[in-house]
Automatic annotation (TrEMBL):
Keywords: Flavoprotein, FMN, Oxidoreductase, Signal. This is iodotyrosine deiodinase. Its cofactor is FMN. Residues 1-26 form the signal peptide.
Length: 299
């Protein structure tokens, strides 16, 4: 009994210490989880990048969908491919140097031009430019591109209406101050007169998968990278013939434009290029390009 009465205050102290420790711990955990919740909300706000997340998603993952394997072609079903000799021209070093400078000088003059002349452009030139774009490499030679060339004034106007409607929402609501400020420097906004004026609108679709005559689907590996390379070649080809364009990626317009142009569901809009001669009073922002030392690393 005496021992118990001596131990009681000790036990009470120990009990208080344990309860106190548990309280402190639980508060620490709560603070940590609130902080992490706040951090993740902030991160998801800053990570919200609709120009990456919405329009430009690559649908290669559709290949992985469960239960759809029977719809897809097995690569073994494709025929064997003969190989042929290849010997492109080889130039003396001096000529190489000259050609490398010439092409650089030509492409260094390329600018995104937002003021395009309505003057007609020969259709055959456009066909050749697109033929050139079609020489791009592509994942497993799937050539996952469709170039829709629009010259019909009514369709161009419908495209303009779709793009301007979405762009206005992008500028006013979706994109945030940073994006709007970055674009203000370039004096670009949601009014896209060039969509009516340019003699051609070229809408480039990436085919997220292919459709074979037997109805099976074919994987289009790296379709977005392949089509983007093709677009780069297209820009160079336009520059080569003295035509101008402005690279545009109309956000959230893809599905509407795809339906308007009656493209199938496996095609997603990647880029819209108005094409023509520059307007006689065209201006461009006085941008400077990074010097070689800033973009090259020799190892
Ligand atoms: C992927 C991509 C998307 C672009 N989207 C737009 C656009 O929606 N509207 C626009 O006016 N310019 C757009 N541009 C053009 C850029 O603003 C332009 O390339 C950049 O300011 C550099 O100018 P330069 O093309 O004259 O060298 C885009 C360019 C790229 C590569």
């Amino acid at each position: 009994m005496a021992l118990l009465s001596v131990l009681t205050p000790v036990l009470a102290v120990v009990l208080c210490l344990v309860i106190g420790f548990m309280l402190v711990k639980s508060r620490e955990t709560e603070t940590a989880s609130t902080a992490s919740r706040e951090k993740s909300t902030a991160a998801s706000k800053t990570d919200y990048r609709p120009w990456v997340d919405q329009d430009l998603q690559d649908d290669t993952e559709t290949r992985e969908r469960e239960g759809e394997d029977a719809d897809w072609v097995d690569h073994n079903e494709e025929e064997d491919l003969p190989h042929v000799p290849y010997s492109p021209p080889r130039y003396p070093e001096e000529t190489m140097l000259e050609r490398s400078k010439d092409l650089y000088n030509l492409l260094n003059q390329r600018r995104s031009v937002r003021f395009i002349s309505p003057e007609p452009v020969p259709r055959e030139v456009i066909d050749n430019v697109i033929r050139t774009a079609g020489t791009a490499p592509s994942g497993a030679h799937t050539e996952p591109w469709t170039f829709v060339v629009v010259s019909d004034p009514e369709t161009k106007h419908q495209i303009r209406q779709i793009v301007e409607e979405e762009e206005e929402v992008n500028y006013r609501q979706r994109m945030g101050d940073k994006w709007v400020n970055d674009l203000a420097r370039l004096r670009t906004n949601w009014i896209k007169e060039y969509l009516d004026v340019a003699p051609y609108l070229v809408l480039i679709f990436k085919q997220t998968y292919g459709m074979l005559p037997n109805g099976k689907k074919k994987t289009h590996y790296y379709n977005e990278i392949s089509v983007s390379i093709s677009c780069g070649i297209l820009l160079a080809a336009l520059q080569n013939v003295g035509l101008v364009t402005v690279t545009s990626t109309p956000l959230n317009c893809g599905p509407q434009l795809r339906l308007l142009l009656k493209r199938p569901a496996n095609e997603k809009l990647l880029m819209l290029l108005p094409v023509g001669y520059p307007a006689s009073d065209a201006t461009v922002p006085d941008l400077k390009r990074k010097p070689l030392e800033e973009i090259i690393v020799h190892i």
